[in-house]
Amino acid sequence: MHFYFDGNFNELKELLTNQFVSLGYQQVQPITEYPAQNYLSIFCYEWDNEISFNFYLPDELVIELQEEHPKLQQFLALFTEKQSVPSTRPKQYQFLHFLYPLHKSQLDPFESSDPEIFYPTGLRMKDNDCVLHSCQLCMGVKKVGFIFDGKILGFNSQEEEGIGTLIKFSENDFYLIHRNASFSNYEDKSIKIMRSMAESFNPYAMALIVLWKMGNRFKFRLPVAKIKEFNNIAVSFNIQNAIELNEAIQSIPSFEEHLKQVKEKAEKGCYKSHFMLANYYHRGESLERDDEKAIFHYNEALNEPDYILSSFYNQSVLQRGQNYVDDMVDEADTVTIDWLKKRSENDDVVAQFLLGFLYNDGLIVEEDKQKALELYERSADLGYGKSQNNLAEKYRKGDGVKQDYQKAFNLYVLSAKQNIPEAFSNLEEMYREGTGVAVDNKKADLLAEKAKQYELYRF
Questions:
Q1: Hey, what long-range contacts does 444-448 have (CB within 8 A, 24 or more apart)?
Q2: How far apart are the C-alpha atoms of 260 and 256, rounded to whole Å?
Q3: With 50 as the cut, is the pLDDT of residue 376 above it?
């Protein structure tokens, strides 16, 4: 979110400084002595023909900031608001940093058994809604815990479910991840927010994304060309991390060179390379999306036991279509039984289906028909076609439930509406056999044709 100003660069800086000082903020240089959670940074840009500024916060927090300060809302209404920025680099820029004054009792956890926790803007943090924060670069946005003498009190460096994870990249850089939900769901939100901030020409966000990618943090996806572009921009803004990484980044081979190497390894039977190729064809970013090639390579990866769950998971995501591409996993070892259980608890319908399938057939886990039924029911209730088909099969056969042809038929129909080939085949059988419905070979023939049309997605 950029705010465009009809005036000159120095006038904008003066206006912003006066406005935030009037709201109780103190203009400061970003030094580590200040508690990081109450920083507010604003970036001012001069483009070829325009002047703009944006906050170093995600849009949702800028909205909350305005709600807290009606005068600020009135002030920002004077500017033209746009989501996009010019494609060229700015002619000049300056970052303005402000410190929101917090009372000592709000900062020192030893003075209170239940201290307040604040956004970088000074707003009080909600209990279970944080994203990502780097105290050294004033990154991101909300945080849990308190930073004193380079330590975050109350948290350790291991992930604790529902509490947090502390990742340390260097002596003074801390990245705290927290949410009262699954880690992987939170990770997706962090990536989305930081990607959006980078696309708005936020050089610190660009530098952090490059750092994530180079450090293989969060399995962040970014084409090589975009990595180099982001880092070049961050270097031009003198961001230290970008400068330190620049030589290594420039030596990264092009995607074309990388793809050639991966294909050669896949031809020699490398299962990891097959999985990587499947992902490229599945995602449709670096290569044109090709479901047939993606499934071929996922099936090849199935020959490696460690890749079975991730390959099956991604094939299920693939069947759902392009709108669900961000649900796929990028690393072959991502999907484990524990991972599926955590995702299932957070209503990941594909995880519920796959885990139900494993319990139902006693694959990898001990057979448990009741658990399978419960997982199928939860996933089917959330509208997932493969689970609706498998649940229908149980009602049709009376497997763990009272036999109910009508309920089976209704579930098969719901599943078929999502082009699940197994559902078309099962409906065909019901019409040919007259099971729960009148015999109708014409409808059965049409359903058989539909099943052939979507045969690629059967497993």
A1: 447/416, 448/424
A2: 6
A3: yes
Q: Minimal CA–CA distance to 240: which of 196, 213, 208, 197?
A: 208
pTM for the model stands at 0.60
Q: Do 353 and 368 contact (CB within 8 A), yes or no?
A: no
Token pair, residue 292, equals: 């047939």
CA distances from 312 to 27, 319, 452 (A): 54, 11, 20
* Cα gap 165→173, rounded to integer Å: 14
253: left (phi over 0), alpha (psi -120 to 50) or beta: beta
Quote the percentage of the chain above a pLDDT of 90. Answer: 41
The predicted-structure confidence for 228-239, as pLDDT tens digits, reads as follows 888 888 888 777
- Cβ atoms within 10 A of the Cβ of 385, count? 26
Q: Which residue has the higher pLDDT, 122 or 376?
A: 376
Least confident among 109-118, 215-224, 329-338: 109-118
CB atoms within 10 A of CB 445: 13
Distance CA 316, CA 12 (A): 52
Amino acid at residue number 244: E
Q: Is the pLDDT of residue 358 over 90?
A: yes
Task: Return the pLDDT at 238.
Answer: 77
The structure tokens listed for 20 are: 């935030």
